[in-house]
UniProtKB/TrEMBL annotation:
SMART domains per UniProt: PYNP_C
A Pfam family recorded for this sequence: Glycos_trans_3N
Organism: Amycolatopsis antarctica
Domain Pyrimidine nucleoside phosphorylase C-terminal: 333-407
Name used for this protein in its record: Thymidine phosphorylase
InterPro entries reported in the protein's UniProt record: Glycosyl_Trfase_fam3, Glycosyl_Trfase_fam3_N_dom, Glycosyl_Trfase_fam3_N_dom_sf, Nuc_phospho_transferase, PYNP-like_C_sf, PYNP_C, Pyrmidine_PPas_bac/euk, Pyrmidine_PPase_CS
Bilayer-spanning residue ranges: none
PROSITE patterns per the UniProt record, alphabetical: THYMID_PHOSPHORYLASE (PS00647)
Any single Gene Ontology cellular-component annotation: cytosol
């Protein structure tokens, strides 16, 4: 085949057959198809799309570009993937919770880039914790603890690694077949038998509308089915941050609260909903994740999971050198707290990175002292900005411009006020 013919075919709206897809991905991985040719093909796919069968084949070719882990465990393996959000620390309580209920959870994760945080960056705020594990270590920990959250190995879907970096700089990220195949190639290569997708919708997510999110979810579920992975998807809100903590150490602290039976109601509810879905896929529908949280079994598994990777679950987490409080400008109900604005602000404070390889500040982030729907009086603290570099505060405040809105309202019965007779 010639790359130019494959590009021309897609440019003119043809579907790519299996042989051409296999060839172009393999040749691109080997450097035979040039970056500029793959750029043109990605743009042609962006504009023309791919049907379900093409997308499944494209995913298969990306899986075949690298190794496929075969994580054998005595327990059923099941994983979760979130399309990314602000304050989305759910993996932290979820992996040990599902393991405590009898499944094995191999959660190969990434670092944050842009306004969404990275699971590995959050966990690295725990003193001693190590993200890089060998395949043998992953297998051993899955058997002994049941849950492992670690860095994806270099060998998984290398075609996607190259293509994703290219899409990032060629305005070809926001394409349903390209996003769906990118995510699913990594998840299928990881070898879990079941996969639950948490597809985020709203300002803080890739997909801004429910319709787009549904389309992405359907594409990913079809790819999973085509590759023999039991896959299901939930669409969940990302218009406002999840929970009350956004950043690194602050999100670990909030996850530990959830694992100890407390924590914000939205984080608990989403953790339990995803756990139930995962346990269903793993063939354990009678497991009781709420009991595993309440009894402390999930917290015990968390401690073992952190220790197995060199971390000290009891160690004090890093604290910020500087805290800046943002106060309510009006009296009334806090009506919106924009996820994107809060995500960018946390990033500016040092919780995220602007380039691959940069260091993050573990203590940086935001605590939300009020959440939408709650009554506040002018001057009440709403957000606490945490950073080690106070120079970053003005940029964070600029990102928050317009992110908080209020509706004038009487202090109508607050949700958590005591009932009045
Ligand atoms: N996450 C991925 O891994 N790939 C995409 O294309 C988008 C989000």
């Amino acid at each position: 085949f010639a790359a130019v013919d494959v590009i021309r075919a897609k440019r003119d709206g043809a579907r790519l057959d299996d042989e051409r897809i296999a060839w172009v991905i393999d040749a691109y991985t080997r450097g035979v198809v040039a970056e500029e040719q793959m750029s043109a093909l990605a743009m042609a796919i962006f504009l023309r799309g791919m049907d379900a069968a093409e997308t499944a084949r494209w995913t298969g070719a990306m899986i075949d570009s690298g190794e496929r882990l075969s994580l054998t465990s005595a327990r059923p393996t099941v994983d979760k993937h979130s399309t990314g959000g602000v304050g989305d620390k759910i993996t932290l309580p979820l992996a040990p919770l599902v393991a405590a209920c009898g499944a094995a959870v191999p959660q190969l994760s990434g670092r944050g880039l842009g306004h969404t945080g990275g699971t590995l960056d959050k966990l690295e705020s725990i003193p001693g914790w190590r993200a890089e594990l060998s395949t043998a270590e992953i297998g051993k920990q899955l058997d002994e603890v049941g849950a492992v959250v670690c860095a994806a190995t270099e060998g998984l879907a290398p075609a996607d690694r190259k293509l994703y970096a290219l899409r990032d700089v060629t305005a070809t990220v926001e394409s349903v077949p390209l996003i769906a195949s990118s995510i699913m190639s990594k998840k299928i290569a990881e070898g879990a038998a079941g996969l639950v997708l948490d597809v985020k919708v709203g300002s803080g997510a890739f997909m801004k509308t429910a319709e787009q999110a549904r389309e992405l979810a359907a594409a990913m579920v079809e790819i999973g089915a085509a590759h023999g992975v039991r896959t299901s998807a939930l669409l969940t809100d990302m218009s406002t941050p999840l929970g009350r903590a956004v950043g690194n150490a602050v999100e670990v602290a909030e996850s530990v609260e959830v694992l100890r039976g407390g924590g914000p109601a939205d984080v608990v509810a989403l953790t339990l909903a995803l756990a139930r879905e995962m346990l269903d896929l793993a063939g354990l529908p009678d497991a009781d994740p709420a009991e595993a949280l309440a009894s402390g079994r999930a917290y015990d598994t968390w401690c073992r999971m952190i220790r197995a990777q060199g971390g000290d679950p009891e160690a004090e987490l890093p604290r910020p050198r500087h805290v800046h409080t943002v106060s309510a400008t009006e009296t009334g109900t806090l009506s919106t707290m924009d996820a994107y604005g809060v995500g960018v602000a946390a990033w500016r404070l040092g919780a995220g990175r602007a380039r691959r390889g940069e260091r993050v500040q573990y203590a940086a982030g935001i605590r939300c002292l009020a959440k939408p729907g709650e009554y506040v009086e002018a001057g009440d603290p709403v957000l606490e900005l945490h950073t080690d570099t106070p120079d970053a505060v003005p940029a964070a405040l600029a990102a928050l411009d317009g992110a908080l809105t209020y509706t004038p309202a009487d202090p109508s019965p607050a949700k958590d006020s005591l009932p009045v007779k």
